[in-house]
Amino acid sequence: MLQKEQLIFIIQQLKQYSGFDLSNYAEGSLLRRVKRIMINQKMDVTQILRGIQTDPKFCKEFLEDITVNTTELFRDVKIWKFLRTNTIIDLQKRNRINIWIAGCSTGQEAYSIAILLNEMGLLTQASIFATDINSKVLEIAHKGEYRYRNNLDYLSNFDTVIKHNPLNYDDYSNVDYEKYFKIDKSRDKIIMNDFLRKKIVFLEHDLVKSQSLSFGKFDLISCRNVLIYLNQTLQNRILSGFHHSLHPNSFLMLGIHESILGPASIKFKKKGSVYINK
Questions:
Q1: Are the beta carbons of 103 and 223 closer than 8 angstroms?
Q2: pLDDT tens across 42-82, in order?
Q3: What is the pLDDT of residues 170-204, one digit of tens each?
Q4: Alpha helices (H) in the chain, listed in sequence order
Q5: CATH number of the domain at 77-277, out of 3.30.930.20, 3.40.50.150, 1.10.630.10, 3.90.180.10?
Q6: Distance (Å, whole) CA 105 – CA 107
Q7: Domain boundaries of the chain, sorted by first residue
Q8: Which of 116, 148, 152, 241 keeps 20 to 30 A from 27, CA to CA?
Q9: Residue 92, Cα to own-chain centre: how many angstroms?
Q10: Is 7 helix (H, G, I), strand (E, B) or coil?
């Protein structure tokens, strides 16, 4: 259906007509995503190429469909429990806390961080920047509205991370969901509260072209389930950028199936579920 040579040509045409270079993305991942788009839109390679070359709107939407990632509130609760009992405790010693969620997709990761910080009394001293290349998912993130029936795991994740004390499961805090989001079952919506939405700055940013933000150094960078879609060369370039963007002895959070290999490994040391910037 889609051959490697055809994929390479599609990537070349995307670079020419959109300016976005996918050549360092993992080939297998791109192949699966382009095939999925072709099936969903009932298009062949010729039609895809014609759309990229002649229709800027199609080109933009095609790129957004390729780069979209799935996420959820407090995804992988083990990492969040570690963050609560270890990493955030260290951040409590700092006067200001600067956080960057890179590849934030539809924003649940950023809202998770904000909720956790608020529960620990640190939200007012924190600045949270959340970035993604995909303008479509950023609109969803900024709006902070998600399907209720499709995201019931949000509630159990919230309970595990926020309501239970990870150090003592006999200690339970009855934190109402309404403190952070409204559940409107009739409209099938989970809607984040305004004080969370206003706290997070959502920005369009191409992590491949630039591995830093112009908002100073960071105390915590979260880039979860992004690197697995990139090849080793690009992974190390991004990780080196994160190293320069972090304060010394600050934290990098990756996905549970991601690790730091190659030249970038000497810049970080592993501590539990996070990496510490050397």
A1: yes
A2: 999 999 999 999 998 898 888 888 876 778 899 999 999 99
A3: 667 889 999 999 999 999 999 999 999 999 999 99
A4: 4-18, 27-41, 45-54, 56-67, 77-82, 88-91, 108-119, 135-143, 153-158, 194-199, 232-245
A5: 3.40.50.150
A6: 6
A7: 4-67, 77-277
A8: 241
A9: 23
A10: helix
